[in-house]
Amino acid sequence: MRVSATDVCYVTNDVELVCDVSLDLAPGDRVAVVGPNGAGKSTLLSLLAGDLRPSRGSVTYDGTDVSTLAVRHLATSRAFLGQRQAEDIAFNVRQVVEMGRYAYRDDASNLPSDDRRAVTSALEALDLVGLEPRLVSSLSGGERQRTAIARTIAQETPLLLLDEPTTALDIGHQEMVLRVIRSLGGSGRTVVAVLHDLNMATAFDQVVLLDGGGVAAYGAPEEVLNSRSLTKVYEHPIEVVKHPLRQGLLVLPSMEA
User: Fold this and answer.
1) What sign does the dihedral 55-57-68-159 (CA atoms) show?
2) What is the largest CA-CA distance in the chain?
3) pTM tops 0.85, yes or no
4) pLDDT tens string 156-203
């Protein structure tokens, strides 16, 4: 599915949170959205999801305006992970992941075996095997986050929109989530992830750098993540060097301000 945003703006209470953003995402693209606090990252993700309607411009899936799509069509087109996950809910891990299959409940072509396969695959991918009977309210923050990500993966949509997916995760599970994102892109699913960790963003195919609601830079990591642009946008000295141990970049904030 091709996802396009054309001159998208979003205004609320006379404040322009997103301004003239244009993106064109092909199947399999893995895109990181970065920028300082208040840059418009979460708002842009909600616009791409169809949860917010643009004040100007449009978001389309394969040429169809998202605002015209029925809720069920949206649920089978994109999966959305917000920043905050419910903590005090009376569902266990498996039940929450199974919620990702709800959109297919009336689809005659979807078999119970399809649901079981999707749920089991997501549980395994997010290292949740053995936690299935645990109530979500009994989990750690990282375990809840992995459960929420597993739900979006089980939804098996062509587009995944993830707002800070590595929040509360230890370093091992952060790397695991990045591996999952890479594998999803390899299978043709488009992933857009809001990130605060600029070093994680270097592992994506494309990076969108937002500043004040607009696009400061958009392209490959080596084009976007450079010292000059990052220092300007984040208003703090930042150095970008070649990673000494693996291919790619290493982003280093200066200790001197």
Assistant:
1) negative
2) 61
3) yes
4) 999 999 999 999 999 999 999 999 999 998 899 999 999 999 999 999
Q: Give CATH superfamily name and number for 3-221.
A: P-loop containing nucleotide triphosphate hydrolases (3.40.50.300)
70 φ, ψ (degrees, to nearest 5) = -70, 155
User: By three-state DSSP, how is residue 142 classified?
Assistant: helix
Q: In sequence order, what are the residues at sequence separation of 6 or more whose Cβ sits closer than 8 angstroms to the Cβ of residue 130?
A: none
Dist CA 16 CA 247 (whole Å) = 38
Q: Which residues pair with 207 in a beta bridge?
A: 32, 219
Could you report how far apart the first and last alpha carbons of the chain are, in Å? 44
**What's the length of the chain?**
257
SS (H, E, C) 129-142: CCCCCCEHHHCCHH
CB 57 within 8 A of CB 12: no
Domain map of the chain by residue range? Answer: 3-221
